[in-house]
Amino acid sequence: MLARGTGGLRLMLNYLSFAIGASIFGSLRLMGQRFDIVFVYEPSPVTVGLPAVLIARIKRAPVVFWVQDLWPETLVALGVVRSKIVLGAVGSLVRFIYNRCALVLGQSQGFLESISKYCNDEKKIRYFPNWAEEGASPSTVAGAPEMSVESARFTILFAGNIGEAQDFPAILDAAERLRSNPAVRWIVVGDGRKSEWLRQEVVRRGLSNCFILLGRFPVARMPSFYAKADALLVSLRRDPVFSLTIPSKVQSYLLAGIPLLGMLDGEGAATISKANAGLVCSAGNPAGLAQAVLDLLAMPKEERERLGDNGRNYAQREFGREVLMNQLEAWFAELAGSNEGRYALGNK
Predict the structure, then answer these.
(1) Which end of the chain offers a freer environment for a tag, N or C, measured as fewer CB atoms within 10 Å?
(2) CA quadruple 46, 220, 302, 232: dihedral sign
(3) At what angle do helices 84-98 and 49-59 cross, to 10 degrees?
(4) pTM for the predicted model, two decimal places
């Protein structure tokens, strides 16, 4: 496939080239092999469904499509596409893919209504959240050496993608409000399309002493970073489509047993509040985030530990990997043993 590069055109060509390349080379590499199910994990773009639908037709197997990112709504939310003609075409593509799937899974309850606008058969639509990524507990691993030991400082950790949706301008605004507080530091582990912008902006705002960018590390290393964090930060821009989303990092954050700081709306915020696992402010609210940091900092250590324990217990109960995998396998077995999945591949 073509590399992403920069700019909207290069991004669209990247999406298109993958869909074409996967359809051609995927079909060739899988010649002679049989499959019961074609499973698609779709964080973005939705075009990953095209090679899946083609290969599923060739193999006469049902498709299960797990929606992590709503299209075309996300394109509008990020300002990537504004043309109604293009958005209409993307909507038609989404409809084409969904209606050739045996099941369409939504990662949050809020996704289901949006999916139903493009899927003719609502019986195919199911709720299936992300599970909490299990691994070594932060309390049992050595802290990441990349995070210098500064016991006198309250460490807020953001781990994951650095993109438009995460609203780093608002995070930086919150950091600026607290720049005079020597007890607070912000650490970012990850990368993304906005990484270079963020690096330059930290320097421009004079935040280098309290806002530290460590770059990307393997997922397996995350517990070692969590081990040196006092709070885990999750954020999303203010937009109706993002209010329907539970960022996948929320489940792993909860399981880590460390208090969360959330700057987001909707289902993500509700999940943190239901778990009583941290403090939340509305999306795009740097003043609220700065105050939440101060409120968490002022809490007794025992109270912060209680918030972390609440999060871990909630994640194990609501987002346990074993329970969710058993559900997924049950759906697979049901489809593999019926004609429902094959019927879904017909022209509709």
Answers:
(1) C
(2) negative
(3) 30
(4) 0.80
